[in-house]
Amino acid sequence: MVTAVNLALQSPASKGNLGSGSVVLALNHAFPLLSDGARTDVDYDALAMPTIRIMTSAEGYQEGYFLEAIDLDVHQVTGTKLDWPSRSPSFLQLQKLTAKPIVASMGPLSRLMAHAVENLRNAILVTEVRDHLLSFTARLLQKWQKNKFSEIDLSEEANFLTPETLRTTFPVLWQVLKTAMFATVVILRAVIGRTLIDPVLSSPKFAPATASQTLLTLKNIYFISSRLGSNSFSAHTFVNIASIDILTRFPISSLAFLRSIYPSQAGQIPAHPLQRNHDLFYLNTAENFTLSLKPADIESLIVIPCTPYLSPNANAHLLEIFEAAHSAMLAALAAPQNEELAARVLPFYAESLFASFPRNLSPRQFKFAFKALIQICTPPNPLASSHPLMAETLLELLHHRALAAPTVPLPPSTAIKPEVDANRREIPLSEQSVLLLTLLDALPHLTLGVLEDWLPVAADLLNVVPNPTMKEHCKRRFWEVLEGGEMDVERSAVCVAWWGTRGGRERVLLGEGPEAGPFMSGGLGVPLKDSRL
Fold first, then answer.
1. Which three-class secondary structure state does DSSP give residue 463?
2. Is 137 left (phi over 0), alpha (psi -120 to 50) or beta?
3. What is the crossing angle of helices 339-356 and 390-403, to 10°?
4. What 8-state DSSP symbol labels residue 77?
C-alpha cells in the first residue's frame, strides 16, 4: 500500500486534483491500519502539498466560493429579517458539499496532514503549508465579509433571521465552517510544533514569519472560532499562545505584526460586527506584547484602540470586547517600563472602571480589574515609589462608592464565563457586597502601614451590609483572606495582631465597633472611690 502511494504521488498522472485526491483519500482510509514501520516509509514530502491543496480545492472547501453562492440566495423579507430557504440551490449545493468524501472525512484527513507536517524531511515545505493555509483563510474571510450574514451580530441573530433560516439552513453553514476551522487549527498545531523543535524553522530567519503568519491565519478564522469560545479548543489555545511566545522574542517583528492588524477604525466602535470581531482578536492578542514594546508604541497600539470600549455608555451586548479592552489596558499599565504612561492614564481608567460596573462589567471582571490596579500601584511596581498615595486613593474611591451602593441583588451576569465559572452556582450579591469583596481581595497587596489602616475599615464596611446571606458570604471571604495563605509573613503578622489584640475579632464576628469617643490622651478617667487606707 505504501509503495503504491509513493509511486502514485511521483507519477505525472497524479498531479491533478482527481488523481492526487484519489491517492490521498485512499491513504487516509488505510492509514489507521498501517503499522508504525510502514508509516515511516511514506514519502511525506510528496504527500504534503497535494493533501493540503485537495482539502481546499473544489473537492474540499472550494476556496470558500460556496459563501458567494449563499449570498445570492439570501433575501430580505418581512422588514429586516433575512431568509435563506432550505430549497434554495445554494443550500442544496452545501448539503452535497458536506457529503463529499474529502469533507466528510476531514477530521482524519487533517490529522494525516498534521502527521505529514511533523515528518517532512524538507523543513522548508512546512512554510509552503503555512502559506497555503494563510491564503485559504484569507479568501474565506474575504468571501464571508461580502456575505449578508456577516452583518448580523451573534447576539442579534434571532431578531434578524427567519425561523427556517435560524433552525435549518444557518446551522448547516456553521457546521461546515467549523470543520474548516478545526482542520486548519489541527494542521497549524503541527506547523508550530515543528517550528519549536526544528533548528532551521526556529531560526530568526523563519520563526518570526511563521509565528506572524500563523496568528494572521487565526485572525482570518476568528469569526468562526469566537462563536465557540477560543479557549474551549485546546489546540487553538496552544497555537495562539505558542505563536505569541515565539513572536515576542523578536520586538521588531512584533511591532510590525501589530501594525499590520491594527484596527482600521481605532478610537471608535465600528458599526460592522465583523470589524468588532477583528477588534476583539486584536485586543486579546495585543495584550501579550506589552513587555516587548516601548511606551510610545503601547500608547498608540493598545491604549488608543482600548479607549472606546472602556466607555460606560457603550452597548451592553459587547461585554466580551469590554473585558478584552480592560484586560489589554491593565496589561499596558502593568508593564514596568510604562511608569509615566500608567501615572497619566490610570486616573482616567479608574474612573471608567467604576462607571462601567455593574452595567458593562460582571462582578468577577470588576474585582479582577481593581485588584490588578492595586498591584500596579503597590511595590515592587515602580509606580508605587513615584506616586505612593495612588493605592490609597483607589481604596478611598472604592470605600466611598460602597457606602452609598445599592443593596438589592444584582441580576445574573451575561458576561462570557469560563466553563468552570458557568457551572458554579453563584450566590446573589448586591453591588455593595461586591465592592466589599473587591476591597477584601485587594488587602493582600497593600503595604504594611496601609493594610493596618484598612483592616478596620473593611470590618466596619462588613457590618454595613444588611442582607444576612450576603454578609455571611463576605465574612467567610474576610476570614479566607486572613488565614488562607494569600498574605505573606509580614502582612500575616499585622493581621494576627489586629485580629487578636486590636478588636478585629469582635468587629468581624460580633459586629462590635470601636468605643465611642472622643478621647484625649492623658485625660481623667472615671472617678474612683477614695481609698480608706
1. coil
2. alpha
3. 0
4. E
DSSP reduced 3-state for 530: coil
Residue 289 and residue 208: Cα distance in Å, rounded?
Answer: 14
Return the residue matching grid coordinates 465574612: 475
| Distance of alpha carbon 339 from the chain centroid | 25
| Residues 399 and 360 placed together within one structural domain of the fold | no
* AA letter at 481: V
Question: If DSSP codes are grouped into helix, strand and coil, which group holds residue 81?
Answer: strand
Q: How far apart are CA 125 and CA 187, in angstroms?
A: 13
Mean pLDDT along residues 197-211: 96
Neighbour count for residue 456 (Cβ, 10 Å): 17
Nearest Cα residue to 443 out of 431, 455, 428: 455
Q: Of 276, 267, 375, 387, which Cα lies nearest the Cα of 331?
A: 375
How far is 450 from 462, CA to CA, in rounded Å?
18
The reported pTM is 0.88
In a domain, 122, yes or no: yes
* Peptide bond between residue 32 and the one before it cis (omega within 30 degrees of 0): no
Residues 19 and 107 both lie in one domain? yes
Reported as a single tens digit per residue, the pLDDT across 72-111 is 999 988 778 999 999 999 999 999 999 999 999 999 999 9
Decide: 286 and 329 in contact? Cβ < 8 Å: no
Instruction: Give the amino acid at 13.
Output: A
Whether residues 203 and 332 fall in one domain: no
Q: Which three cell numbers stand for residue 103?
A: 469533507
- 259-293 burial, b at 16+ Cβ within 10 Å, e below that, comes to eeeebeebeeebeebbbbbbbbbbbbbbbbbbebb
Q: Which residues contact 68 (CB under 8 A, 6 or more apart)?
A: 143, 146, 147
Neighbours of 79 (CB within 10 A): 6
Q: Are residues 136 and 193 in the same domain?
A: yes
Task: Name the β-bridge partners of 75.
Answer: 83
Assess whether 361 and 403 both reside in one domain.
Answer: no
CB distance 246 to 210 below 8 Å: yes
H/E stretch holding 76 reads strand 75-77
Angle between helices 207-220 and 124-145 (to 10 degrees): 30
> Does position 221 have pLDDT exceeding 80, yes or no?
yes
CA atoms within 13 A on the CB side of 412: 8
How many domains is the chain partitioned into structurally?
Answer: 3
Cell 495562539 found at: 240
From the CA atom positions of the chain, what is the Rg in Å? Answer: 30
DSSP string, 473-510: HHHHHHHHHHHSS-S-HHHHHHHHHHHHHSSHHIIIII
Measured in residues, the chain has a length of: 533
Q: Which domain holds residue 499?
A: 395-407+428-510
Contact 313, 360 (CB under 8 A): no
Q: Which three cell numbers stand for residue 424?
A: 458554579
pLDDT digits (tens, 9 = 90+) for 373-387: 999 999 989 999 999
Distance of alpha carbon 335 from the chain centroid? 19
Q: Are 129 and 191 in contact (CB under 8 A)?
A: yes
